[in-house]
Design brief:
320 residues, alpha/beta, Isopropylmalate Dehydrogenase, 18% strand, oxidoreductase
């Protein structure tokens, strides 16, 4: 098991991230060494400020903190535009720490994209795209994972009307190959089995409900299967996610956002983890947002953050 800690970027200081970091640390009881990157002024509760990641090992009574200066205060529920650049810089600092080998993985707490755009003209749609840019990677893949299911959407945050145009053979192939490689490297699955959904109802039903399965998805799956990939599909999405079906694959690759996220959030709403596949380092994140409406009220559920930290630690062990 890697002895380097997981570095946790603070995310939006006005959201629930800082309080769930504390809750997660207390719940893990040292099982996952971690260090929070944040401004000490923003953090309530007991912390142990450390000068470097080398000082984290063995600290189990108070959350280790690497200080990072922010320009504004942290008022729960009210983002301060002066903090936007600090949020961005903390993510970049976390990437530097894990890329250099100082940390075993990066766990990112939720950001608020509008606050970053308003305060620092943030040019990226979200965490994932910014991390890819920092890593110099052209294409990454989003996976949502819980103990009973892993899902990967091929297209993500676009209108449903735009999905058929965005869905190309190149994009689907890249998604499948990145997913297979990550399951081998980071999840320890020697021969990953990927179930691939169709785009249309009943996977097109032989062309009666759409032809993308015939013209795009099936030819690609046939070619990749001949290369040795273990693929099934295109499958009707409405029959892919019951327990018996899930036992037949290691990850489900879906054509669009809701096709992938509705089943996993139904199965494990609180415990899902967002994992970015295709980066040269490990990145996980809780699968929820800043929750400004409950920030600072002690109501935030740390389950997803705990799961994200455990998954990051386990992935680091698999990656070695």
């Amino acid at each position: 098991m890697s002895k380097r800690p997981v570095v946790v970027s603070c995310g939006e200081p006005a959201g629930v991230g800082l309080e769930i970091a504390h809750s997660a640390f207390n719940a893990l009881h040292g099982d996952v060494p971690m260090v929070l990157l944040a401004d000490r002024r923003h953090v309530s509760g007991t912390v142990t400020e450390v000068a470097s990641l080398d000082d984290v090992t063995g600290l189990e009574t108070a959350l280790p903190l690497l200080h990072h200066d922010f320009d504004g205060d942290a008022v729960p529920g009210t983002p301060d535009p002066r903090n936007a650049q600090g949020v961005i810089d903390v993510i970049a600092r976390g990437v530097d720490l894990v890329s250099s080998g100082g940390a075993s993985a990066l766990c990112t707490l939720p950001i608020h994209k509008k606050a970053l755009k308003d305060g620092a003209d943030f040019a990226y749609p979200g965490h994932t795209e910014y991390l890819a840019a920092l890593a110099g990677v052209e294409r990454v893949v989003m996976m949502l994972a819980c103990p009973d299911l892993r899902v990967v959407p091929v297209t993500i945050h676009i209108a449903v009307a735009d999905v058929p145009t965005a869905l190309t053979a190149e994009l689907l192939e890249d998604t499948l190959r990145i997913t297979e490689a990550a399951l081998k490297r980071d999840f320890g699955i020697a021969e990953p089995r990927l179930a691939v959904a169709g785009l249309n109802p009943h996977a097109g039903e032989g062309g009666a409900m759409g032809t993308e399965e015939i013209t795009l998805i099936t030819p690609l799956l046939d070619r990749l299967s001949q290369d040795g990939m273990r693929l099934s599909g295109p499958m009707s999405a409405d029959t892919m996610f019951h327990a018996q079906a899930r036992a037949g694959y290691d990850a489900a690759v879906c054509m669009y956002h809701d096709q992938a996220l509705i089943p996993i959030k139904t199965i494990d709403f609180a415990g899902g983890v967002n994992v970015t596949l295709g980066l040269p380092f490990i990145r996980t994140s809780p699968d929820h947002g800043t929750a400004f409406d409950i920030a600072g009220k002690g109501l935030a559920d740390p389950t997803s953050t705990i799961a994200a930290l455990r998954m990051a630690w386990d992935m680091a062990d698999k990656r070695g």
